[in-house]
Design a protein that fits this description.
The structure holds two protein chains of two kinds.
Chain A (H helix, E strand, L loop, with lengths): L3 E12 L2 E12 L3 E5 L6 H9 L6 E6 L9 H10 E4 L11 H12 L4 H14 L15 H13 L5 E4 L8 H17 L3 E6 L11 E6 L2 E6 L10 H8 L2
Chain B lengths: L1 H29 L7 H15 L4 H22 L9 H39 L2 H7 L4 H36 L7 H11 L2 H27 L7 H29 L1
Helix pairs in contact in B: 1-6, 1-8, 2-6, 3-4, 3-6, 4-6, 4-7, 4-8, 4-9, 6-8, 8-9
Classes of the chains: A alpha/beta, B mainly alpha.
């Protein structure tokens, strides 16, 4: 088995003084595609942020690419952030920059690449995500789905080792869903990056995933391949996949 | 009552400490040898100077002209009546250059740019843009706070000098219709009265005001947690705190240099 890139060991975490995640342990290996599956109040968003090293656990240990984000220095965190691409539920594009400048921002900030190469790379990502036509538009001019695709392009532009996508289905229409599935499939064939995404409804995207991490009320119910999900004896899981 | 006073004092101290730490981090970042994101940071500084400085020239010029006109007309018509016509230049220097120039320019910058900085950062918090920058490994101090502080300080110094110049020369030219003092004599008197230390203290004040305005407004903008209703609340607090801080700083500098 390939090396572990994300490890959560007996992790509990809270948000605004409320415990949302309790005693969760699982590992994600390099090149793996994992879906955190659960309803809206299952704590999967917080688990995803823990996986990306954006939140510190209240107890337990999180290791991302060999580092413990809770104990990392500012410099180590900076390095870690460049290796983890994160797409928030809200597109979170910088509102006073064009879509293109948003995607080019990480390259311009972190690298010393010539501007021509930055433009090439940013445009390639925008094209891959199907939003190259909107490159000169401001984020406020985009639909939620297009803005999310632009945010995905921005998260992928640094060629991260881990790609985290929160609420992967949010704002997508049928065409965009197919396009996203193709992007993920292409990445799966290339073997990188490791993908972790949260999903709150049954979707064909789950077929692209290697493993599902099923969550209910902040607790881990089971981890299994998508094909075996229906065999998990849990009412939430049965309801979730029974409606598929 | 005692508990309320104690709580408010502690909140005030906490606020002062948070602003001081943010200011020190921005100041340290300004002189950081790190090359990371230099081009992007320079772009933000330029945009801030354009907005705070260049775009404010008409409003600062108009206010300076009107204020200069009022003071010169009042002083130029009243002082000769009490046999103190020779003090016109001194009055101009005292009121405009030492006090009103830096202070009124600071108030204009607070109303225009302070509110804009606070609102922009607050809305960025609400839209998760700040969280996204953090997730991309982009330093909030280096990319958001330091360029705004540098831009506001540079713009503030230039605007204060511009304000003083327009108020003194422009105000006199407009007021000349009613005054009999030749401009040559007026300018010579100003030149004689105005010392290097006056100009230096004006610059020191404008640097302090600019730094304080930018840091306090950034602090309040970044203090927005998640609701859009917090943005105007934090902006109001930022206005009140920056005006108070500028007045306190003005008193400290004036007492320190002139008493």
């Amino acid at each position: 088995m390939s090396e572990a890139v994300i490890t959560l060991d007996h992790v509990s975490a809270s948000e605004r003084d409320q415990t949302l995640v309790e005693d969760i342990s699982f590992t994600v290996h390099r090149g793996e595609a994992v879906a955190l599956v659960g309803s809206n109040a299952s704590g999967k968003g917080l688990v995803l942020r823990l996986c990306a090293g954006l939140e510190a656990p209240a107890s337990g240990t999180v290791r991302v690419l060999g580092a413990d984000p809770a104990r990392a220095t500012e410099e180590q965190l900076l390095g870690l952030r460049q290796q983890v691409g994160f797409v928030f539920a809200k597109p979170a594009l910088i509102s006073n920059m064009t879509v293109f400048n948003n995607v080019a921002l990480p390259l311009r900030y972190h690298t010393a690449l010539p501007e021509t190469e930055i433009q090439e790379r940013a445009l390639a990502r925008l094209t891959e995500c199907g939003v190259d036509a909107f490159r000169d538009r401001m984020p406020s001019d985009l639909t939620l789905g297009d803005a999310r695709q632009a945010a995905l392009a921005r998260a992928m532009v640094m060629d991260p080792d881990i790609l985290c996508v929160d609420e992967v289905l949010l704002g997508l229409d049928a065409d965009e869903l197919v396009r996203l599935r193709k992007i993920l499939e292409r990445y799966r064939k290339a073997g990188r990056p490791t993908i972790v995404a949260t999903v709150n409804a049954p979707t064909s995207l789950l077929r692209v995933m290697d493993r599902l991490v099923l969550l209910r009320d902040g607790r881990l119910v089971a981890t299994c391949p998508p094909a075996e999900a229906l065999q998990v004896v849990d009412p939430m899981v049965q309801d979730f996949f029974g409606s598929q | 009552m005692i508990a309320w006073t104690g709580r408010k004092t502690l909140e005030g101290l906490e606020f002062a400490a948070a602003v001081l730490v943010l200011g020190l981090r921005a100041f340290r970042e300004l002189f950081s040898p790190a090359r990371r994101g230099r081009g992007e940071v320079f772009r933000v500084i330029t945009r801030q100077i354009l907005f705070t400085g260049v775009d404010a020239l008409p409003v600062v010029g108009a206010i300076a002209l009107m204020l200069g006109l009022i003071i010169i007309i009042q002083a130029g018509t009243t002082l000769p009546q009490v046999g103190a016509g020779a003090f016109l230049a001194k009055i101009i220097e005292l009121t405009l250059v030492r006090e009103l120039g830096p202070l009124l320019t600071a108030f204009i910058v607070i109303w225009r740019s302070g509110t804009a900085i606070c609102t922009e950062l607050g809305n960025m918090q609400v839209g998760q843009e700040i969280a996204a920058l953090d997730a991309m490994g982009i330093s909030l101090i280096r990319f958001l706070v330091m360029p705004r502080v540098a831009g506001v300080v540079l713009a503030m110094v230039c605007l204060t000098i511009y304000f003083d110049f327009i108020a003194i020369v422009g105000g006199f030219l407009v007021a000349k219709i009613h005054l009999t003092i030749p401009i040559q004599v007026y300018l010579e008197e100003i030149e004689e009265t105005l010392s290097v230390s006056d100009v230096l203290i004006t610059v020191i004040k404008s640097v302090l005001f600019g730094f304080t305005i930018a840091v306090i407004c950034c602090h309040h903008g970044l203090s927005v947690v998640g609701a859009t209703t917090e943005v105007p609340q934090q902006t109001t607090r930022a206005m009140l705190n920056t005006v108070t801080a500028c007045l306190v700083l003005d008193i400290i500098v004036s007492v320190g240099f002139y008493l």
